[in-house]
Amino acid sequence: TKDPNSAPNRHTAVHLFEWKWTDIANECERFLGPYGFSGVQVSPPNEHALIDGRPWWQRYQPVSYKLQSRSGSEAEFIDMVNRCNNAGVRIYVDAVINHMAAGGNRGSAGTSYNPGAKDFPGVPFSAWDFGDSLCKTGSGNIENYNDPDQVRNCKLVGLPDLLVSKDFVLDKIVEFMNRLINIGVAGFRIDAAKHMWPNDLNKLIGKLNNLPSQTFGNNKRPFIYFEVIDLGGEPIKNTDYTWMGRVSEFRYGKFLSEVVRKKFGQKLKYLNNFGTGWGMIPDGDAQIMVDNHDNQRGHGAGGDILTFFDSRLYKIATAFMLAWPYGYPVIMSSYNFNRNNDAQGPPSDGNGNTNNVIINADLSCGGGWICEHRWRQIYNMARFRNAAGFQPVQNWWDNGNNQIAFSRGNKAFIVINNDDHSLDQWLQTGLPQGQYCDIMSGNFEQGRCTGKVITVEGDGRTKVTISNSEEDPMIAIHVDAKL
Ligand code: QV4
Ligand code: CA
Question: Which atom of ligand 1 is nearest to the CA of 158?
Fold first, then answer.
């Protein structure tokens, strides 16, 4: 389904990239649940290759479907899913099902395998289960993305390509995903979906179980979002997949980053029809993000994508994304890395054991964990999105350039100044008269505001002043943070 299966009034998920299951379970209880997040995209939970240097991308090289990975054991995974569901937070699994490992010979669960011979006894898959005979390129790899046959049937960067059309292969994948569903997982990111035939994926989805009714209610289907990078210019389109689930709309983060960076003559004012008005897929078909684990380090779509390295602009882009009613947002939660080493794995003890996430007194993270989702300007916008609910955009205002404002019905209102001069303006907020806490500059805690207080007059207007030199040149208010 395209429905994220969220608990009521939760609208923002977070990708806890490379986090351990024990940490995610704690995070659901101590932070994500209370702060109104809807779900967590977790790193691939199944057995993966162990590659020298322990790069993050070893987890995209499956060895078997045993639930033992760098993030933890099967028992820890089950405990995490239960505790997150109890906290009202859903778990979405990154399902790597297009291929198996190209490197290594012993997996994270201890299974020996031989990628050259395509022997993966932990499943078991053997040479017969891979599609080499279907691939017509000289190298056996995908050489030309303009040829859909090779994109589907040949190897993605040398990764042995599974014959998903074969019943035995499909059934092994279905068995794996159904085990996760029975544990209580609410949905899947389908990794490398561009490299699998839509009809095969449709068959697979048809064989998935309903979600456990005691947690989700009767007849609920798993949430599916496909990773299909479509920036235009290739014959494979994201709309080849939207009939079966959502698709990650990679143009969203690319275009939004360009606008906030003011590249190619872009301006914030052009965002007034962001979404289908910009040629993107329909709202309900899209899963969106500013950046993801690939393009933040130059893999995948790449480009001018904003990341935590450009924190000021990143907060602006994320604030717009969470204020604007389009798509299902997943916030990237990163670890720090050396930009000259795009393979660098998560903070670890040097023996491949991932470190615990450190939580500081001010809610931020330490120990190399960036935790964008714990930045005040970001977690408060997740609450803004919940307050805004399904209200439409109203009261759009812009200065013809990079100063914009809009409300979400009569529930929430945001102003952004990305110009090189200050903003000084009476604006219509759409909100009821009263005093509101600006959730950019502070928090609304126990009925008090630690940031700026914004007064909305009886006619719904307020006087807004935002200097362009502010760290966060934005004001955001909503009815759940009214004084
Ligand atoms: C190398 C050579 C190949 C050679 C091969 C021979 O480059 O030419 O044929 O060895 O063995 C890693 C290495 C890569 C290596 C490959 C196989 O980086 O150099 O090939 O392993 O050993 C992640 C990383 C990849 C990584 C892969 C597997 O991004 O660098 O490859 O994991 O470990 C396209 C796709 C899209 C994809 C995106 C990155 O359409 O689907 O590229 N995105 C998803 C994930 C991504 C993941 C994969 C798909 C693969 O988001 O993280 O790739 O599961 O746009
Ligand atoms: Ca394939």
Answer: 9
